[in-house]
């Protein structure tokens, strides 16, 4: 009887040992595979969205700027700098949007492949030149011309061809850092570019059938690229970043435009103050419609997996209403 008991105990000990070893090996494997993932830190949502689409399961991507936060005045905290230093690659837009980035990355001892300014007008990659917003297209903007002269419009992602170019730049860089998955990055980038091209086509078709071609915007000057691409005229209450308080004459000028041209809708940015836009609607009887520049995303939409293209489709639906377009 005693012998049976010993055998039985030995049997269970063996089983438990096998289970324990198996579990340990599994843990080892899973931690090894997650260690193999590229860790990518991006600054703004449009870049995060591209990396998510291109990287798929092979990258762990995060946004440095928290959801819902205004990005133009962002300054990194010490823990942000630690996140950047621990990442395999840090991707930001460029000096005109994140002037702090150069100062942060220089002392980190990262090699050139680990830092990527994806929206810089001219990158090291041949042919990857982003569209620039033409200065003379700003004539209609009520913001003071001299302020624009020395500034570069940072909202390059609102020209979808630029977003497609940045997709290629990012896929190339991920392929250099992780050659084993290069074919996956390139294939995903191709699929993402195709979606952006289809979006651009729908914008072109829709926005060529509108009764009005003027976007009156109660926020800062974010949609210059978009207006330029589709031949619209665009008037914003503020300059390239949302800091400057609009002056009363600017508001009065916009209000007069709305009245003179019988404009029925005023657009505004969801994550920004609606105050200016509401002043305009009060003055003129126009109705408010959201137009998202997608600098950032709300925490709720980020959890839902909302994409940049989803946001742009919402925008087009509101533009169709606001500009009285007939294309369905
Ligand atoms: Zn902006």
Mean pLDDT: 85
* H and E string: HEHEHEHEHHHEHEHEHEHH
**Share of β-strand residues:** 5-15%
Strand order of the largest sheet: 2-1-3-4
Could you say how many structural domains there are in total?
A: 2
Which superfamily, in CATH terms, is the homologous superfamily of the largest domain? Nitrogenase molybdenum iron protein domain
Euclidean distance between termini CA atoms? 84 Å
Work out the number of β strands. Answer: 8
Largest sheet: 4 strands, parallel
Q: Helical region count?
A: 12
How much is the radius of gyration in Å? 25 Å
Coarse shape: elongated
- What's the helical proportion of residues? 40-55%
Name the poorly predicted regions.
21-33, 135-140, 143-147
Question: Bound small molecules, which ones?
Answer: zinc ion
State the CATH class of the largest domain.
Alpha Beta
CATH architectural label of the largest domain: 3-Layer(aba) Sandwich
**What structural category do the secondary elements indicate?**
alpha/beta
The CATH topology of the largest domain is what?
Rossmann fold
Brief overview, please?
The protein has 328 residues and is an alpha/beta fold. Helix content is 49%, strand content 10%. It folds into 2 domains: 38-122 and 133-193, Nitrogenase molybdenum iron protein domain (Rossmann fold, 3-Layer(aba) Sandwich), CATH 3.40.50; 200-322, Nitrogenase molybdenum iron protein domain (Rossmann fold).
């Amino acid at each position: 009887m005693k012998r049976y008991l010993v055998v039985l105990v030995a049997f269970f000990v063996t089983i438990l040992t096998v289970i324990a070893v198996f579990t340990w090996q599994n843990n080892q494997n899973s931690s090894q595979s997650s260690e193999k993932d590229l860790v990518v830190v991006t600054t703004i949502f449009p870049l995060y969205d591209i990396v998510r689409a291109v990287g798929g399961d092979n990258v762990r991507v995060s946004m440095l700027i928290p959801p819902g936060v205004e990005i133009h005045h962002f300054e990194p905290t010490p823990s942000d700098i630690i996140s950047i230093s621990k990442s395999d690659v840090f991707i930001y837009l460029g000096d005109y949007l994140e002037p702090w980035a150069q100062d942060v990355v220089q002392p980190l001892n990262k090699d050139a492949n680990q830092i990527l300014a994806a929206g810089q007008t001219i990158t090291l990659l041949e042919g990857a030149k982003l569209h620039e917003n033409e200065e003379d297209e700003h004539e209609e903007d009520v913001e003071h011309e001299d302020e624009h002269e020395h500034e570069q419009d940072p909202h390059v992602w609102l020209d979808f061809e630029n977003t497609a170019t940045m997709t290629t730049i990012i896929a190339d860089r991920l392929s250099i850092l992780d050659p084993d998955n290069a074919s996956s990055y390139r294939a995903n980038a191709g699929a993402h570019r195709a979606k952006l091209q289809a979006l651009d086509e729908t914008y072109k078709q829709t926005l060529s059938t509108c009764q009005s071609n003027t976007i009156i915007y109660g926020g800062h000057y974010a949609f210059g690229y978009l207006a330029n691409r589709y031949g619209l005229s665009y008037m914003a209450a503020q300059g390239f970043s949302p800091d400057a308080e609009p002056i009363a004459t600017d508001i009065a000028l916009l209000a007069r435009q709305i009245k003179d041209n019988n404009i029925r809708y005023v657009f505004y940015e969801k994550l920004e103050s609606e105050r200016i836009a509401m002043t305009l609607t009060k003055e003129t009887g126009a109705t408010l419609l959201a137009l998202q520049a997608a600098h950032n995303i709300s925490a709720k939409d980020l959890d839902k997996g909302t994409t940049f293209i989803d946001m742009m489709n919402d925008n087009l639906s509101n533009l169709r209403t606001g500009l009285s377009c007939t294309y369905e």
